[in-house]
Structures are given as C-alpha cells and as structure tokens.
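residues and backbone:
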Amino acid sequence: MENVGNTMFHLAERLFPICRSITGNGFRKSLELIREILPEIVVHEVPSGTQVFDWIVPKEWNIRGGWIRKKSGETVVDFNDSNLHVVGYSVPVHKTVSREELLEHVYTIPDQPEWIPYVTSYYKERWGFCMTEKQKQTLTDDEYEVLIDSTLSDGSLTYGELILQGETQDEILISTYLCHPSMANNELSGPCVQTELVKYLKGLSKRRYTYRFIWNPETIGSITYLSQNWESLQQHVKAAFVLSCVGDDRTYSMVCSKYADTLADRVLGNVLKYHYPAYKRYSFLERGSDERQYGSAGIDLPVCGFCRSKYQEYPEYHTSADDMSLISPEGLAGAYEVMVKVVNALEHNDYYVMTCRCEPQLGKRGLYPTISRKGSNYSVRTMQHFIAYADGRNDLIEISNIIGTPVDELIPIKDKLMEHQLLTVK
C-alpha cells in the first residue's frame, strides 16, 4: 500500500502546478498526464453553446498571466506566483485603475488573513484578483496597473471516460472532477485515487460488473455527461460513487444518497464502519459535489460521495492552504484501500444459501478442529455465524452487518464453503 500511496502522491505533484478550470487547456493537459498512465481513457469534446438539459456549455477560458502593479513598477500579486491570484474565468483586462475601483475587484478571506481564496465567475463575465488579507492591507497607493491576459471564446468542454467491461452489463459508476487550479486535496486527490483504482480493477482476473470511470469538470461536466448518457446509466448503474477530497489523513466521510437506501450506501457504509469506525456520515442535504447531479430529480442514480475530510468542512478548503502539504501518500493510500474494499465487496456480494440442511459436518472437510476443547472453535466461529445466516435472506453485506465481521474477511470463508459445495448463490 505504501508504494501505491507514493505513486498517487507523485502524480499529484505533477498535476499541482497546472491552472485548471471547467474548460480549457489546463484541463486537457491534466487529463493527458493521466492518459500517460491510462491510455484507454477516451477524451470527449463538447462544443461551447451546446444545450445540456437546462444548462449551456460555456465559452472556453484560457489564461497566460495576470498581475497588479504599483505605479513604481513593483508587483503586488502575480498569477505566476499562484494561479489562485486571478478569479477563475476572468475576462481580459489591461488598464490603470484607482484604488477604489481595484478594491471592488479584490477578494480575500479576512478571518484567514494569510491564505488566498479560490474564487470563480463562470456564468457572469467579470474580472478580479484574489490575495491574502495581509496583501490587501498594503494597497495604499492611489492608482494601480492591472493585467489579466486571458481569452474567453467559443471552444469546448472536455471530459475523459474509461469503461472496463465486465461479465455483465450491470455497471458501477465512479466519477471525479479535474477542474480546479492548484488545490491538492480538493482537486487532485480524487483523480489520483481513481487512476490507481482503475489499475487495480484492470489487474483482476475477472470482473462481474462493468466499471464506468469519469474525469470531468465539476457540475457542468457531470450535467453534460448525463445529458448524453442518462438513459443508459439509469438502466445499467447499480451503484455510483463520487471521489472528492480523499487525500488528507484526518478522517473519512460519506455523503449518503437521497434516501440513504441504495447499494452504494450499504457497501460504502459497511466498509467505512470496519475500516474507520469514527467516520462521518452526511445526509444528501449536505451534498456539494457531483452527487448533486447524479442524484438529482429525473436522474436518480444510486450515488454516494466518498471523502476523507469532506469538502466545505476543513479550514483549508478552497484556499491556497490546500497545498501538497495537506495530502500525503498515507492519506491517499487509505482512501484507495477503502475503494478497493468497496469494489471487492460489490464483486462478491450476492444472496448465498447453504446446500445442506442443518449444520454441516465441517470437521471431515478440514474446516473444523478435530479435537474439541475449550476455545478450540473460536477460529471457526465466524464461519459458523456465516453459515447460520446464509439462508438466502441476506446478501453478503447484510451478513457482515449482522455478525459484525468485515466483508473482506467473509469472502475467503464464502470461497471455502463454495469450494466444498456447501454454499451456492440463491
């Protein structure tokens, strides 16, 4: 697991400097870095102006630089120092402005005076700069020269899709977003964990489910994708997950589906209960990432959000403090391990029933100690519990919940019983 964590962290390091947005070359460059690892990713381009349900794909935004300078030539803030310094989707501007006008276009976080906020204006044309509150307090000159070297023009929205075909047409959808600038946990942890999860699933000798992976720009990207695929997704998707903010090492979190009663809720909740019992569970009312779209009225996919520290709940969220020091190989590896357990649980989840009436004779099959004394059956007690509840009424996840044993510990027991023809799928 340590090597996997380091691999994901190094990918995040490569992606971190790139200025990304919901459209543009930054997104494409980031996706191409991931395609170096997963060349099977299919890249889709959807033209600006395309109607996607109630939305329209916006113009494409690209930026080369931006700064604020004093009349003396001294630079106050520079996009090259932090790509958070320019408000996302700012229109181009180059002019001299008064201090009063400049302050109308400056954004800070007064109660976090040393951090730069992340601010965007996707759907209303404006320009602006972000800086620390301390930097703002230095703006005492009468005039400043401002430059934002950007373009906002017809182009396209980009997203990546990878489908791993399984033995059935039943699908598991796993989605993440790749549209924010340099923020490590908020932006890069999800794509990095998802990339390694694809590699894991590719390495399995067989897959029961078909897995559909999406790397898209948040909100408008999922809306665009759903507008093109919603009927097929409604027909085939049995569980869906959105990976977001999965790189720190503070806690684990899940955002439940609308009614908290789907297969996704059951499997993620089960895994987290045993992996990190103190995990935080949020209702769909506290959603904020693409589970909003996948679970929206008229779409209603069985989707949960998976995070470590949930977006909007940790102090560095949407600020310059969400840097590479906030995530770690260990944090990424922990999230990866959870998702591996989730997909393994899904792959083995079924309703199982014993093939013989009454309790089977395990000893003659080498599944029970041949000498009976105090404590001798402790090692097989879990197997006995499993057998008792393998009556066709409970699937593997529910048996795990009932007997208090993680699914990944039940899988080898299930396999042994099937090997001895004591167990079958209902």
